[in-house]
């Protein structure tokens, strides 16, 4: 595997597959927290780049987006990463959203990502939440079903628990001076309609 990749694919795979059956058999399935998931040699560069990034830059992948932040978004939407998510969740043929049309950074206390009605009729199946912090645990992520919002524990700025019943599977973590939350969604094509004659 290339030495220039940011993600710790082996560690992510190991942690996701440890309790794969428990994870994938629940309906809706549990979330998993994985840390650290960025390779050590890149962490000190990635965290500040993401903390400086705005939603407008993310959604358009503008040239003002720092290259290392752009690479992380691309890797989180890459085929190798999608295969890891599929193996862990038993969801087949996941589709990425590299322009973060339904995701992005949460901007304020209690805010939620803008809910878009996808014109392409894709079914939103999986959510990835990344807590980015300059504190003791600099970066972690959690994956969950879209109906299982996660919350940041205010004491240590880590994603730690589910809050049931929030509509649209929106996240409700808080942003502090030292912590932000980045949300990405993954999709499936809807099943073909049955012909009833």
Relevant terms:
197 residues; alpha+beta; Jelly Rolls; two-stranded antiparallel ribbon; 6 helices; 28% helix
Structural write-up:
With 197 residues, the chain is an alpha+beta fold. 28% of the residues lie in helices and 21% in strands. It has six helices and seven strands. It has helices at residues 9-18, 20-25, 40-51, 55-60, 67-76, 79-89; strands at 32-34, 104-105, 123-133, 139-145, 150-153, 158-162, 179-188. It has a five-stranded antiparallel sheet. β3 (123-133) and β4 (139-145) form a beta hairpin. The longest helix has 12 residues, at 40-51. The N and C termini lie far apart (52 Å).
Order of helices and strands: HHEHHHHEEEEEE
Write down the domain tally. Answer: 1
* The CATH topology: Jelly Rolls
The low-confidence parts are 108-117, 136-141, 145-177
Rounded to the nearest angstrom, the distance between the terminal CA atoms is 52 Å
The level of helicity is 25-40%
Tally of individual helices = 6
- In total, the number of strands is 7
Proportion of strand residues: 15-25%
What topology does this entry show?
Elements: H1 9-18, H2 20-25, E1 32-34, H3 40-51, H4 55-60, H5 67-76, H6 79-89, E2 104-105, E3 123-133, E4 139-145, E5 150-153, E6 158-162, E7 179-188
Antiparallel strand pairs: 1-4, 2-7, 3-4, 3-7, 5-6
Helix pairs in contact: 1-6
